[in-house]
Amino acid sequence: MMNVRRQAPNDADFIGIVAPQPRKLPRQSRAAHTIEALLEAAVQIVTADGPRALTTTRVAKRSGFAVGTIYQYFANKDELMGAMVRRHVDHVVCFLEIACRDAQGERPEAMIDALANAFIAANADRLRELHAIHAVWAKIGRAALLYEGSARLHHATLELISRVNEMRAERQEMISHALASILIGMLHALFEGGMDEALMAVTREQLSRVPIVETVDGHDRSPNYSTLHVANVVT
């Protein structure tokens, strides 16, 4: 089988890009419930019958809401699919944020395990949704849909790494960027290629290659992080 190397998006891809947002932002629990019902209906339709079967009429019928209700929140089905992606990104990032918080002060190996385990668990928890996103990604795949998740992951991993003793601020920034880039890159790869156990193993391997702490005789002998290549996924 031919190896395909996927290059994950980096921060430069997101400069000046604003991810499209739902037409109407839910401010009350009832509105949030409506959004969830519409998105879940969309996931069910796509996983059962494919992306071409996704129409506002079918979403309305499956969710129990009127077509007009859908248009209160989404201008068209592309916006609906984009919201489905953002919901999954938010779910995965929430798992990773909790992992970063809980792993603060742990050994570097434990930090890496916590990140890898959280990433795998979050995607496995929403497997049907992930399959639906994979089905529609070729149509709506945009790096901007990953922008908010990328920024949140960078912040969370920076908080995690900042607890490592005697690490320079610039190095903290480089390592947190590397970890966040790997995680968002792997999520992007899952959207493109679908759920793959081999890809999950690659996620753990890629994360473990980031040397959080590497000193010899008290002197920093870590590699040059500016040349560290991350999130080049080979399947």
From TrEMBL:
Residue ranges flagged as DNA-binding region: 55-74
Zinc as UniProt keyword: no
Keyword DNA-binding among UniProt keywords: yes
Domain HTH tetR-type, chain residue ranges per copy: 32-92
GO molecular function, one term: transcription cis-regulatory region binding
PROSITE patterns: HTH_TETR_2
Keyword terms: DNA-binding, Transcription, Transcription regulation
PANTHER family xref list: HTH-TYPE TRANSCRIPTIONAL REGULATOR BETI, HTH-TYPE TRANSCRIPTIONAL REGULATOR RUTR
Protein name: Transcriptional regulator, TetR family
